[in-house]
Amino acid sequence: MKILVLGAGVVGTAAAFYLSRDGHDVTVVERHPAAARGTSYSNAGLVSPGDATAWASPAALKTFIKSLYTPDLGIKVRLGLDPYFYAWSFRFLFQCTNARMRINTEAKLRLALYSRLCINEISTETGIGYDKRARGIMYFFRSQESLEHGARMYGFLAEHGLDIEVVDRSRMAELEPGLAAARGSIAGAVYSPMDQTGDSRMFVEALAAYAEQKLGAKFMFDTTVEDLIVEGDRVTGVKTSAGRLDADAVVIAMGPESGLLGRRNGIDLPVYPVKGYTATVTMDDPSKGPTMGGVDEDRMVAYSRLGDRLRMASTAEFTGFDRSHKPSDFKRMFETGQELFPGAFDPAKAEVWSGLRPMMPGSVPVIGPARYKGLYLDTGHGHVGWTMACGSGKFLADLVAGRKPDIDPTGLVYKG
Predict the structure, then answer these.
(1) What DSSP letter does each residue of 218-240 carry, written as one string?
(2) What is the percent of the chain with per-residue pLDDT over 70, rounded to a whole number?
(3) Nearest-angstrom CA–CA distance, 215 and 212
(4) What are the binding positions for FAD in this chain (predicted)?
(5) Which one of 52, 165, 281, 372 is at 20 to 30 Å from 351 when CA atoms are compared?
């Protein structure tokens, strides 16, 4: 089949890889001048099944409400006039029960564990390098109360296949010497040895090149998707800034813009952008930095070791499609990084960035056919898109081919 994949981030590029490998004639349409120039450019770098707990939960609802009047939180909400935000928030509210949280978390974890295998298989098959570090991820807590709560949450993940170890501060520092200087301010941690880290931009750039050079995929950069072309009950192509493109099938993998395109065509696709901030800096003294990825769960700051670079990420800000940033947005992130890894880096040397995560109300991506014949979705991966992208690409390719997916599709296949 002739297939158009809309979006050349990690999700769209992974889908293009698997579809091309199946023998389809694949063209990827991307508005940026190169692959991985949107959300995939600078995420936290964590390939983290351990981070599969759904955002929508009773605890998240309390934090969401508190953020309306407390500015110094990891979650920030700017109330505006966007009616779609209120519609999304209403649907988010109905996902914030313990029952829905468990259902959504199990689906995310199932895809995340599968996707981790897919990432590693692609790397082995193609020889792609991306500063991978497979030493696990340390999820640590600053109070005994938050540690006990976190241990219960991670216990649910352990019941569904995640290998974890709940550790005290001494064992934490033994596993992660980089946290030794900060151990006095940390109560304990959950260590997930199955998790890993890597640079998603390096991975996507190399995978796009491989798909183009080895599998025959084509990439159209600097090309904006304007609308779907629908004839009767079928999608037959896409209107773009470069003209009409005809196809037998179209895959929407446009990250936060997916919802905009879906709504224009009567598709119930509640993807909303949630802004995050990252900083990447070459360490002055790598010996004082982390040896693995980590998450400060109480301050909502994540980090990865990418070669001799340190990548830090924080904040979930509901501010529409605003991608701007200012120095104060990184203040708490840098303070936390310097407290954890004193002497490792100079914030003045960091490359700072902000981007938008494509969030579904239940935190679970949507994959598969939608409304029109020939139309497929692969979007809504939220803050763990790097973790779940390759698994969702393989899952999508199986659905397109009519094959039985390798994993249980419950909760993952789009129902509009």
Answers:
(1) EEE-S--EEEEEEETTEEEEEEE
(2) 97
(3) 6
(4) 3-17
(5) 52
What 3-state class would DSSP assign to 79?
coil
pLDDT at position 416 is 72
Which tokens sit at 60? Answer: 């998240």
For residue 157, give every residue at least 6 positions away whose Cβ sits within 8 Å of its Cβ, in sequence order, or none. Answer: 49, 50, 52, 53, 105, 109, 164
pLDDT digits (tens, 9 = 90+) for 239-271: 999 999 999 999 999 999 999 999 999 999 999
Instruction: Please give the pLDDT value at position 74.
Output: 65
* Helical (H) or strand (E) element with 188: strand 188-192
Binding residues for FAD: 3-17
Q: Give exposure, 124-133, as e/b (b: 16+ Cβ within 10 Å).
A: eebebebbbb
Could you give the CA distance from residue 203 to residue 211 in angstroms, rounded to a whole number?
12
Residue 331: Cβ within 10 Å count:
12
Distance CA 170, CA 202 (A): 35
C-alpha Rg value of the chain to the nearest Å:
20
Contact 3, 250 (CB under 8 A): yes
Dihedral of CA atoms 252, 302, 36, 108 in degrees, nearest 10, equals -30
Mean pLDDT confidence for 131-142: 98
Annotated binding site: 3-17
Instruction: Determine the residue type at 226.
Output: E
Query: Residue 69's pLDDT is what?
Result: 55
Q: Are 248 and 54 in contact (CB under 8 A)?
A: no
CA-to-CA distance for 177 and 299, rounded, in angstroms?
20
Determine the Cα–Cα distance for residues 381 and 305; give it in Å rounded to an integer.
23
Nearest to 321 by CA among 263, 275, 262, 270: 275
Please report the pLDDT score of residue 77 as a whole number: 73
- Lowest-pLDDT range, 56-60, 233-237, 243-247? 56-60
Q: Is residue 64 pLDDT above 70, yes or no?
A: no
Element (H, E) at 121: helix 98-126
Q: pTM of the entire structure?
A: 0.95
